[in-house]
Amino acid sequence: MAFKSLICSLVPAFAAAMLFAAPAPAQQVEGIAAVVNDEPITTLDVRNRMMLILTSAGIQPDEETLARIQEQALDGLIEETLQLQSARDFEVEVEEEEVTESLRDIAARNGSTLEEIDQDLASAGVDIETLRHQIRAEIAWQILVNGRYGSRVRVSDNQIEVARERVIEGASEP
């Protein structure tokens, strides 16, 4: 698939302390971590995604882990930005109710409610919109790929079983 030219300029890695610093006052401007086809990804976006990853994993990171998570967060945001841009190019729209329903499914699988997830994230300093953005990109990309390749994709029961076993084996790994 041909994407618009990707212009990605990264700012120097910000210190681990920045991750845990108090939120910036409203009048303070966040820096730009990357630009994807003229669409900026801010350091606040990266920091929020890092907090989401840390909260989801339930780990206390060291400097090396923070650097790895920062890279993972930025890479994920760049990929999601490209996915959402492609979805817009093909006029794929994701309704807010679809995102909310996906969040409800996640909550149900974890024996929780949407309100509890929201509270847990808020208590960890994570804005629920960070997770909603990630889910919106996943849904949009799934719709786009299914629309374009769905009729040509064939998955056997054996492939499903192998993938399921791989997920089960990986569940115990950090």
Question: How would you describe this structure to a colleague?
Answer:
The chain is mainly alpha-helical and 174 residues long. It has helices at 16-20, 43-57, 63-89, 96-109, 114-123, 128-149, 157-170; strands at residues 32-36, 39-42. The protein has 7 helices and 2 strands; from the N terminus they run αββαααααα. Strands 1-2 form a two-stranded antiparallel sheet. The longest helix has 27 residues, at 63-89. The radius of gyration is 18 Å and the shape is globular. It starts with 15 loop residues before the first helix and ends with a helix. Residues 1-27 have low confidence and may be disordered.
Describe the protein's topology:
Blueprint: H1 16-20, E1 32-36, E2 39-42, H2 43-57, H3 63-89, H4 96-109, H5 114-123, H6 128-149, H7 157-170
Antiparallel strand pairs: 1-2
